[in-house]
Amino acid sequence: MLPSARPLLAAAAVLCVWLLVAVAEAKEHHYEWDISYQLKSPDCFEKLAVTVNGEAPGPTIRATLGDTIVVAVHNKLETENTAIHWHGIRQIGTPWADGVAGVTQCPILPGETFTYKFVVDRPGTYLYHAHYGMQRVAGLNGMIVVTVPDGFVEPFSYDEEHTVLLGDWWHKSVYEQATGLSSNPFVFVTEPQSLLINGRGMFNCSLAPSGTCNASRPDCALPTLFTAVPGKTYLLRIGSLTSLSSLYFEIEGHPMMVVEADGHYVRPFAVRGLFIYSGETYSVLVKADQDPRRNYWAASHVVGRNPSQTPSGKAVVSYAFNGNNPWMPPPTAPPAGPAWNNTAIRVEQSRAIFAHPRFVEPMPARADRTLLLLNTQNRIDGHIKWTINGVSLMFPATPYLVAMKRGMKDAYEQRPPPDMYDHMSHDISAPAPTNGTVGSPVYRLALGSVVDVVLQNSNMLNNKSETHPWHLHGHDFWVLGHGEGKFNPAADAWRLLNVRDPIMKNTVPLHPDGWTAVRFRADNPGVWLFHCHVEAHVFMGMGVVFEEGVERVGRLPSSIMGCGRSKGLH
After folding, report:
1. Residues of the signal sequence (predicted)?
2. What is the pLDDT of residues 10-26, one digit of tens each?
3. Is residue 62 exposed (0-12), middle (13-18) or buried (19+ Cβ within 10 Å)?
């Protein structure tokens, strides 16, 4: 046997053990969720937030590999639809539970109840959030923790674990933001007023209109991230559900060991702080080995965008030690974080993530199809849109899954989108030369085929290039590589790609002025969204839709129907 084959066989054996144990011990977890608007003050400024049972963020869902999650969602928003996406859960056999209005279901109407039921098929740290319009901005989000079965030993150890959900927050309503993005002249959402850690931030109330902000409110008090016992090791499950911001998260004086990314074990590597992009999750180990007579700052900082309008998010790690006051703020100034515009150190972290040697998922040697996808910002009919290979995605009135399963060919665009752009002549350092189109086309992938996708960044209309975290529904992909400048299929195809031990993820950053290459197997029958996880960008059309083996999908539940051409089928 070749030595290089041993880790792959070991990984396969581990997966078999996981599945056997999971099937034998699987449980069902039932939740009843009321989705409603409530007045909240997460950063001391009072405004309406979309809540789960009155709370924002919502409750953390905890389960074990192989368990079934059942969530009855009661839409009590009165005048607004909703849908909930279970971010990172592949929905194998349940594509209608992916929770994307316009792709896998009709939205849940006010006063209606929709029940999501799905199996968690991989241990790790995942997320959930609204996936209707720009509703995620308003606070409907939370975390999902899937643990390994009893008896399975992970490739690291710790004493306790805690969840850390990072976010950003605006004082403008979702409606104001969406209206500005759709208007002519264009009005961007601006930078967030606050960064949140586990749903809490702190806005400078002197900048707010009188009566709208109160720093003494208990729900905007400086949060305690966790209480540390000297000598213990803590696993922090960190997730980002920012709507715009790329972040750097750090704990003063405490380096982190990264051990998991998007539900996959990584070759452990140490960082002083963690760069994390919207839709990503990481698990890190932190050792409580500092002076226990004081407390320490945890902080999140905006990177990739000028943070002058958005103060850092702050929390406290307190030490449980005789003589230390756990409520006392740290005696030092909060850490300032790295230079916000240093792209190189962010790319360096992206390139440092490899699969754990004992858990390398075997990757197909070559692709059956390659998609070279260029993002450009275009002016279409007077409105600013994002396009992929010249097409700005607009969801049809009838969800793709319903339309394609039931043969409603007039419900979405039949002309296929382009696999490539003119990479020989296109200048990525200049704004888009053409206007583009708005449409609802679909990439139809052969079931079981292997697909390479190269995401190519380019300059916006203002001649700047931004970070775009891309998330694939229904799959994990192998991250083949990140590069600067324009991807050259002839020169870069193999020279710069990692085919030995690539990490698998469901969300990956596309860095400014560069490209990112991924590979996945189209083996999950259904219709799946692949999109930038910046909320304003997907709202403006930065996404594509993949269909694979829809004829193999079982009978669709009538509860996902009722809109567009599926009216009367609900």
Report:
1. 1-26
2. 554 555 555 565 556 89
3. middle
